[in-house]
Design a protein that fits this description.
single chain, alpha+beta, Immunoglobulin-like, TIM Barrel, 10 helices, 16% helix, binds alpha-D-galactopyranose
């Protein structure tokens, strides 16, 4: 194998060369001419002419002959007539079948980001699973590098753009003049994507014996309304009872709804019991009475945006509440039915916010949702307008909080949007100000309203979201149902775990499994294994679990994903210590967290496009000696292991395990 990396002088990467080096400065000069040329070299094929659907990237889409922002491909002032404009992080694999000779490309940050301080990327070329060339970190404006890789006999070529480990902002990457030189008469290479395989999960048989799920701890401010549905599965009819309920609360034995209003502050240990013809189950529910003790575990529910966007209306919200019960998801812990943007009308002469025609009577919508034991959420912005351009809360904070309370709202998503035009700058006080203001408005209302910050992570919100009263805060831009989005978001969460805990959570955005589509629902474009990874990681990260699909149209797979009690239990773990990444070996990742019962949850994540074995060593996760391992998607014990556990993980998939014996 011969590798040369040209940057004014010939540079060799430190690897074993399996063929004599024949490149010379002369060759490199000739190769530089090839990649700059309009003319296709003999037996060549431009990269842009292959199927780029399989090229992943975390912003935009691959552009033939253009940069990611659709400008002419330009590096160091030179315009390249051919090539592909992409964006970190990006990857594509080409099957060559031994029929290629050489890969050539000039690479760098496109000149459209030459001056961007954040632009920093690295290019890697892999042949048959070995890294054969890499550029190191290239910043905006740096001299581009020529990559020239011998492909003699090679079966697979993989082209990777990394983000230099500093986030993907401004990482506009060009494979300029990228060309594969083939043997005469050879067929064009094909690109490969992640295989669409059946998900690695088992859909368990529904058990008729009663079981209790959902949060083990819930809080409420004394004197304000309390509502909590005991989540329990099992053959109906089920009856519910609770021992040691604190003063002010009562339970409905037929529905499992605990309601009322706490008389006084304190921590109450309640024993909840559910019974049916097959048996009885009991467990402890801690009820915490205190000021603003909300979201002691991450909120679980549904939000209208990812499925309906601007098409949400009263009927769809009521249908979501119906489906939450009829699908059985409420019995697994899902409680909130949240209306996102586009419910807002104008203000009345007194300045009070009104609904628009899609929501004729918000109080009655809210009563309907509450009648099922569920809670209801709403959306606004601290600016004058919401993201979708509707009336928002600027200078009406107290009035709006009181209106929400009067309607019976339990959850507010407060989305920065047009406040960008009000804030003086991006300083911390300016970023915090509108959220302090809305926090105070919510606190003075006569109802507990969970406060969800949405400002996409600005100013490292995870460091101060709790201080401004946030029960959760979005840490990223909007999610969509693509691998790039999913991968970009979950991998950016590493390190944020230390800022979250009971009452205040990182929010990497809502779920994209099932039928999603922002007004035009389609089955999620994530592969089945990507969906397993998505749910596993959102559980590991203690993320709010807000379903983003049409719950009236869920298939058995989607229901199985959303009702895996063993995974949901991690999300709802009362210790509230989200996972961080403890190992990452070229995309084979290990995430781990401690659970309240003394066990350790581990996600083995394969972000590469091939099935691979991943192992976790006990010392990496702070565990010792012989330990039982349980596979939470196969719902079975994997055995007992002494120092490590190794398992095959599907491409873009995840194996979720629990290690240790529960002390509870
Ligand atoms: C922003 C938010 C989304 C959604 C829309 C509504 O984009 O990040 O989650 O709420 O606004 O307009």
């Amino acid at each position: 194998m011969k590798i040369s990396l040209w940057m004014g002088a010939l540079v060799l990467t430190g690897m074993t060369l399996s063929a004599p080096l024949s490149s010379s400065a002369q060759d490199s000069a000739a190769e530089s001419e090839i990649v700059k040329s309009e003319q296709l070299p003999a037996n060549g094929i431009w990269l842009e002419n292959l199927n780029l659907v399989n090229m992943s990237q975390e912003y935009g889409s691959p552009n033939a002959r253009k940069s990611v922002d659709s400008n002419p491909l330009t590096l160091g002032g030179v315009v390249y007539p051919h090539g592909v404009g992409t964006h970190a992080k990006s990857e594509v694999a080409l099957l060559l079948n031994g029929s290629a000779k050489r890969f050539l490309a000039m690479v760098g940050v496109d000149d459209e980001r030459a001056k961007a301080a954040d632009a920093s990327i690295s290019f890697e070329v892999w042949v048959d699973g070995k890294k054969v060339a890499s550029t190191g970190v290239l910043h905006g404006g740096a001299t581009p590098k020529l990559l020239s890789v011998d492909l003699t006999g090679a079966k697979k070529l993989t082209l990777i753009v990394g983000d230099a480990e500093d986030g993907i902002s401004d990482d506009h990457a060009d494979w300029a003049g990228a060309v594969i030189l083939l043997n005469p008469g050879a067929k064009a290479p094909t690109t490969v994507g992640v295989p669409i395989e059946p998900a690695r999960l088992v859909i368990p048989a529904v058990s008729p014996t009663p079981q209790i799920h959902g949060p083990r701890i819930v809080g409420s401010t004394p004197g304000k309304p309390f509502l909590f549905l005991i989540s329990a599965t099992g053959a109906g009819p089920i009856t519910y009872s609770a021992r040691n309920l604190p003063a002010g609360l009562q339970i409905d034995g037929a529905t499992g709804v605990i309601s009322g209003s706490l008389k006084s502050a304190g921590e109450y240990s309640v024993t909840v019991t559910v019974k049916n013809s097959k048996g009885t189950a009991s467990r402890k529910l801690t009820i915490v009475g205190g000021e603003h003790k909300l979201a002691l575990t991450p909120p679980m529910g549904w939000n209208s945006w990812n499925v309906w966007a601007g098409n949400v209306d009263d009927a769809k919200v009521r249908a979501a509440a119906d489906a939450m019960i009829s699908s059985g998801l409420a019995a697994h812990g899902f409680q909130y039915v949240n209306i996102d943007d586009t419910w807002e009308g104008s203000r009345n002469p007194a300045g009070e916010i009104l609904t628009n025609e899609k929501f004729p009577n918000m109080k009655s919508t809210s009563d309907y949702v509450h009648s099922k034991g569920l809670k209801i959420g709403i959306y606004s912005s601290p600016g004058p307008k919401t993201c979708a351009g509707f009336e928002a809360s600027y200078q009406h904070e107290i009035q709006d909080a009181n209106t929400y309370a009067a309607w019976g709202i339990d959850y507010l998503k407060h989305d920065w949007c047009s406040y960008g035009g009000i804030a003086k700058d991006n300083s911390l006080p300016e970023l915090q100000k509108p959220y302090f203001m809305m926090r105070d408005a919510l606190y003075q209302a006569n109802r507990d309203i969970l406060f969800s910050l949405c400002q996409y992570g600005m100013g490292d919100v995870w460091k101060w979201g709790a201080e401004v009263g946030g029960n959760c805060w979005r840490t990223t831009g909007d999610i969509n149902d693509s691998w790039s989005s999913l991968h970009g978001i979950y991998s950016s969460q590493d390190g944020h775990e230390k800022y979250a805990g009971p009452g205040h959570w990182n929010d990497p955005d809502m779920l994209v499994v099932g039928a999603v589509g922002w007004g035009n629902p389609h089955p999620s474009h994530l592969t089945p294994n990507e969906q397993v990874l998505h749910i596993s990681m959102w559980c590991m990260l203690s993320s709010p679990l807000l379903i983003g699909c049409d719950m009236s149209k869920m298939d058995a797979f989607t229901v199985a994903l959303l009702s895996n009690d063993e995974a949901l239990d991690i999300n709802q773990d009362p210790l509230g210590k989200p996972a961080g990444r403890v190992a990452n070996n070229e995309g084979l990742e290990v995430w781990s967290r401690k659970l309240w019962d003394g066990t350790t949850a581990v996600a083995l994540v394969n972000s590469t496009i091939q099935t691979a074995a991943i192992s976790v060593n006990w010392e990496t996760i702070g565990v010792k000696g012989s330990q039982p391992v349980r596979d939470l998607w196969l719902h079975k014990d994997a055995g007992t292991f002494n120092s490590s556990y190794k398992v095959e993980v599907p491409a873009h998939g995840c194996v979720l395990i629990k290690i240790g014996k529960s002390a509870s």
